[in-house]
Amino acid sequence: MNHRQSPPSARCRSCGHEPRAWATDKLTGLLDRWGWDAEAGRALAAARRRDEPAALVLLDLDHFKRVNDTLGHPAGDRVLRAVASVLRQVTEADPAGAGAVLGRYGGHGGDEFLAFLPGGDLAAAAGLAGALRTEVRALQVPARTVRGPRTITDLTVSIGLAEHGPGTRTRLADLVLAADACLLAAKRAGRDRVRGPEATLRRLAWDERGLPA
């Protein structure tokens, strides 16, 4: 089975939507925030129709501002591209990453990345997140910096997880909010770790009338 992510324009055509220039983050080649919101929203709606699970992985580069401030923004851009490449490779290699919707949040300088996993549960997301953390730690990124040529190492990420359970009416905004809360918990716990919800998203689930369950 081919787990390679389709280009944003191809995915837009396949679902009847015209490709838009803002759908792709020019630095990393991933979907930008608006493109990701649109694609992940459609994937979540499909999961709800099929009564299937889905999961979200949200990762943030630890101390990324320090890279920009000490080595320069071009070096920071090299790091962002390297992390985006890791995200692609890990999701392509993991069965849980089949059909994953990958994106970069935050616009210029943004160091948050997302992977929406259709059909994935929290356990699958945790396995993929662990692989992401390991691969980022192993990165060696050659870059021209304000201090001369350097190889940037010792990179780490904090990761938050969230899950859509079958039979619920979870909204995409709820998933992002829940994953962000877990990401903040990972940072408070010391960074370079993965955190998931202690409970499911029942408190964020919505019934058919769009009212809190």
Index terms:
disordered C terminus; 7 strands; Alpha-Beta Plaits; 19% strand; alpha+beta; 213 residues; globular
Indicate the radius of gyration in whole angstroms.
17 Å
* Estimated structural class: alpha+beta
So what's the overall shape?
Answer: globular
The CATH homologous superfamily corresponds to Reverse transcriptase/Diguanylate cyclase domain
Query: What is the fold-level CATH name, i.e. the topology?
Result: Alpha-Beta Plaits
Number of helices: 6
Oligomeric state, counting identical vs distinct chains: single chain
Name of the top-level CATH class: Alpha Beta
Main sheet overview: 5 strands, mixed
Cα separation of the termini: 38 Å
The poorly predicted ranges are 1-16, 199-213
How many domains? The number is: 1
User: Into which percent range does the helicity of residues fall?
Assistant: 40-55%
Pfam families: GGDEF
Protein name: Diguanylate cyclase (GGDEF)-like protein
GO molecular function: diguanylate cyclase activity
Organism: Crossiella cryophila
Notes on the protein architecture:
It contains six helices and seven strands. The protein is of the alpha+beta class and 213 residues long. It has one domain: Alpha-Beta Plaits. It has a five-stranded mixed β-sheet with strand order 2-3-1-6-7, sandwiched between helices. It is globular and about 55 Å long. Mean pLDDT is 85; it is low at 1-16 and 199-213.
